[in-house]
Specification:
With 246 residues, this protein is mainly alpha-helical. The protein has one domain. It starts with a helix and ends with a helix.
Length: 246
Amino acid sequence: MINDKSKVKRNFLIVGGLILLILLFDQLLKIYIKNNFLPGESRPMFGEWFVLEFTENPGMAFGTTFGGKVWHKLALSIFRIVAVTVLCWYWVKQAKKAVRLEFLIALGLIIAGATGNLLDSMFYDFTFKYDPCFPYNIREGSGIFVECDFWGKMETRPRGFLMGNVVDMFKFEATWPSWMPWLAGEPVFPAIWNVADGSITLGVIMIFIRQGKYFPKEKKVVEAQEISLEDDSVVSDEISEEKTPD
């Protein structure tokens, strides 16, 4: 029988190791893509329906953008830092309660994904050569203008700590069949994503599907309250019947 302290320590090691593995895989793949792919270059991974395609985005998961201004990117990066901090605090709190390992893994997946994309924003502007005229650095609405040779004056994104782009590479090339109303010929999933995005998504799906198992106490409390109300109602009815004269 594993005591609570041993269980907590084991869970720390398992989930901590999982987070490190995801971060390592995420960052190594991004570094490989940055060094070996041209902008927009696509290479088959599993046939023609799942490919590696190099792109970068300034925003949230799956290429969602947030705006071109400096404060837009800074606000997003600060939000990520706060989110990761809160998630880590919540994870430790839950781990000390010796909750289900599966739930801690789900939280760990979200933490790993959020941290992976945050690392891009924090360090990639210093890790890789920065070209303000690089296609993914052009940012309309940023208010930062540079001369880009024959392209002329262009608006480029802000550069620095917490300002870097996020590297994406996974893309589904599958399209909806011709008989599908409104969606015929359209991409099934047009967004380009990365390991970190996938990790976040898997963690959220696990919590959504398995929430009944992850939060049993809340469910039992509600059931107990309902049973208590039913019992009170029955007792009240019995008392009323006893007081009713024949």
